[in-house]
Amino acid sequence: MEEIIHDQELESKEYFINMGPQHPSTHGVLRLVLSLDGEIIRKVEPHLGYIHRSIEKMCEHDSYQQIVHLTDRMDYLSCHINNEAVCLAVEQALEVEVPDRVKVIRTIIDELTRLSSHQLWWGVMGMDLGAITSFLYGFRDREMITDIFEETCGARLTMNYNIPGGLFFDIHPNFQKRTKDFITYFKKKLPEYDALLSDNVIFKQRMNGIGKLSKEDAISYGVTGPTGRASGFSCDVRKHHSYMAYDRVEFKEILDTEGDCFARYKCRIAEMWESMHIIEQLIDNIPEGDYKVPTKAVIKLPKGEWYQKVETARGEFGVYIISEGQRSPYRLKFRSPGFSNLSALDHMARGCKIADLVAIMSTLDLVIPDIDR
Amino acid sequence: MNWLYDFSILTQSIHESLSRNFVPGTVVLIEMILAGVAFMILFALLGLVLVYAERKVSAFFQQRLGPMRVGKWGTAQTLADVIKLLMKEPLMNKNADKFLFNLAPYIIMISAFMAMAALPFAKGLQALDFDVGLLYISAVSSLGVIGILLAGWSSDNKYSLIGALRSGAQIISYELSVGLSLLTIVVLTGSLQLSVIVESQADGWWIFRGHIPAVIAFIIFLIASTAETNRGPFDLAEAESELTAGFHTEYSGMKFAFFFLAEFANMFIVSALGATVFLGGWMPFHIGGWEAFNNIMDYIPPIVWFFGKVSFMIFMMMWFRWTFPRLRIDQLLTLEWKYLLPVNLMNILVMAFLVLMGWHF
User: Fold this and answer.
1) What is the model's pTM?
2) Beta bridge partners of B344
3) pLDDT one-digit tens code per residue, B87-102
4) Omega into B24 within 30° of 0, i.e. cis?
5) Total count of domains within chain B
6) Domains and CATH numbers, chain A
7) Could A25 and B241 be called an inter-chain contact, meaning their C-beta atoms sit closer than 8 Å?
8) Angle CA(A299)–CA(A305)–CA(A308) in degrees, nearest 5?
9) Which residues of B fall below an 8 Å CB-CB distance to A?
10) Contacts of A197 in chain B (CB under 8 A)
């Protein structure tokens, strides 16, 4: 009898570990409860709500111009694209056609935002895997884009450059030159990224075959953006439901079939090249014209429902507005890419090691305020 | 300035002047205290210099300046950090094993101290010189893992425990590679005594004279010793992005600083060991037969040669750390048991064959 009890004590048991809300690689206040067997992950349970600001509820009391500002605070790395989603939905409801100039400028800044977001992701990704140097490389290049933003609209992170009906101000006279300078600079620097991480043996070993997500799973979890496209799920909103000036530029939708961490990594690197390609096509062809169409000071949408989706750096971002004809929406729902991408984490991480979980999380490129809203 | 080239002149004169004034027993006691104080000063200096060097080297790799504000070019930054760490509140978990928790940092420090005592810094400047010097250093430097395991175990924190267990698996595995790669050179010298190993390189360093096996052994030593000191890309025990800070998550203030200091001291020890065994230690760069060239090289004092080589090794290790991503635990163990160890064993065989045939230079 004593022997049996003794044996039971020796049996290995699963144990729990709290990863977060304060943890270096959850990139914010995400709390993951891990069930571990030694180092092997049996279950990942994300707990949300540490940065919940009830943005959707606040929207029900704000005017449409104010709502635009709230979207900055969700996915702060794709703030311009978030702003644009709300603006597009409102413009769609008001049946306003924005001038060509606005369309092109919005598209260029969208792509710059995507670039800066991917640069930051690349830096942080390296840091998560223990190569701290990449973090500073990423920030070094991102700084140039934020400088362009600062000159254009005065803000570096939460830009608020979009308003329903156009832009806050016209672009700065330096904008085209600086953007072109940046593109020439970054074309030289992007191969450095490959030299430092992508071609590294350790890095490849850490990424290849880790966190596999099949196309079917990607679709059923609603995983979008580079994460979904790395699994072969063709989900680029820019291609399939083109908005702004995306229908007049030539660009490839980056697709991969592997669905592992390295595929997601390669997808984002390739997207950076595509973004630069898009900017190059547009930057010299900004048409003359107004930078906004005048809208009423108090925007009242007609009664009805509108949905507008855009492609942020993380995936499909949707805005669903139900209006009762008032100055604020009756109900407003955001479809954030981070939330759906996070939902696939448990599926991808089971059976992996703790170090793999960190790698998977960084290839998902989570922004926590986007998940919690 | 003759003593700079041969420290035994200095030590002999100190010994003689002491012998004139004290009985032999007291002389030994005083000499032991002197040596101990000298090592403590060296330890503190190493901490100051290496922390500063690491910050500047990392800044250099990352295209920034590093510490610049405290003192000229931030030279006093480490001192300021020490003051900050001294004034920090020593915190401890409620359920931590208090005795072991406090003991752990000292065990790591003591093992580093003991290993350092046997290093030949320059001609005639070596506190302990036995016939099993190499074995002694590998033995005492592996004591440090006990400190890491105790720190992880007693912290009452799961992150610390995982870090400590990782570290245990890692250090015990890589100990083998470090030992075997050093043995490759021992086959050449035929002695474990460090002073003899250095003297045997008077006609050229072993890395140049030992053919390809010596180069392979040196590369293996570089990899394995980086792993043994828990530094990146093998810093799995700390792994700040996975385990917050690994085994020293719960430590604060001076006890944390001890872990930090021990890491740098260990880095110095393995670098010194590598420099001694592969790169000739304090022996200047000699080429057998070229007397004039050798005489010119002898003008540079041995201690400069020693610290120069050690700095080179340390710079290499810092370079690794600030370039490579971290390995995963299973990849780490695979690297050791499936690649390094078999290569190492074959390498020793080849080396033994070379020595038997007399094919080395």
Assistant:
1) 0.85
2) none
3) 888 788 888 888 888 8
4) no
5) 1
6) 2-372 (1.10.645.10)
7) yes
8) 85
9) 58, 61-64, 158-159, 162, 166, 232-233, 235-236, 239-244, 322-331
10) 325
